[in-house]
Specification:
Elements (H helix, E strand, L loop, with lengths): L2 H20 L7 H21 L4 E4 L14 E4 L3 E7 L10 H4 L2 E8 L3 E5 L21 E5 L2 H10 L7 H5 L2 E6 L4 E6 L1 E8 L2 H15 L1
Antiparallel strand pairs: 1-6, 2-3, 3-4, 4-9, 5-8, 6-7, 7-8
């Protein structure tokens, strides 16, 4: 499929989605609306990839986040970054909303060289540089052809011990919460979940960060 055809396909899908979402959506149309949104995002990625432009591939939340009075917390020592947030697992998903905040997810980004946390929220996502290239509110992604990663690589290339292979192993992660977005450049990420609300878990996890360095 050439670029012109990819553009036509994307335009057609966006038109269909726009028509369906512009009027009150009936219950029977919800599944079609979700399906069209998925198709639009996939078409955006195909077009950006064909143009060798930045785009977002789904990463999938390691642990689903839950709406909570507690905002996500980011702690970093310059080599390892922790992203902690109120979590929802399979058991808590069926409980009352107030109980969902009794779990805390800890994502550990190893070999993290830089991170960002803050805007945009879900209502301003259209202003994100990657909007229209496979991102959606509430999603988790790995960014391909990342200009931020290339920028950091170029900056560090002047170091006498610069290791090109090490930089080729790093990835650009992007995660959207309700009110915040988190991005980082890291080698890999692991996750685990702990019982207890976010405020009760923070101190112990920060202590571990200091121990591991």
């Amino acid at each position: 499929m050439d670029i012109e055809e990819l553009i036509r396909t994307l335009d057609n899908l966006r038109t269909q989605y726009g028509i369906l979402s512009s009027s009150p959506v009936k219950v029977e149309d919800l599944e079609r609306l979700r399906s069209l949104k998925t198709e639009v995002l996939a078409a955006e990625r195909r077009l950006a990839a064909a143009r060798n432009e930045p785009y977002a591939t789904p990463w999938g939340w390691p642990v689903d986040w839950a709406f909570s009075i507690f905002q996500p917390i980011v702690v970093s020592n310059g080599r390892r970054t922790l992203l902690m947030y109120s979590a929802q697992d399979k058991e808590s998903a069926s409980k009352a909303k107030k109980d969902q905040a009794q779990y805390t997810a800890i994502l550990t980004f190893k070999g993290c060289v830089s991170c960002k946390f803050g805007d945009p929220n879900d209502e301003a996502i259209e202003g994100h540089p990657l909007y229209g290239r496979g991102i959606d509110a509430g999603g988790a992604y790995i960014i391909m052809n990342s200009p931020w990663l290339e920028e950091l690589k170029k900056i560090n290339s002047v170091h006498p011990q610069f290791d090109n292979q090490s930089w080729s192993e790093k990835r650009h992660y992007l995660l959207f919460f309700k009110d915040n977005a988190f991005e980082c450049i890291a080698k890999d990420a692991t996750s685990h979940i702990k019982d207890g609300p976010l405020p009760d878990v923070i101190n112990a996890e920060v202590g571990v960060l200091f121990q591991r360095g």
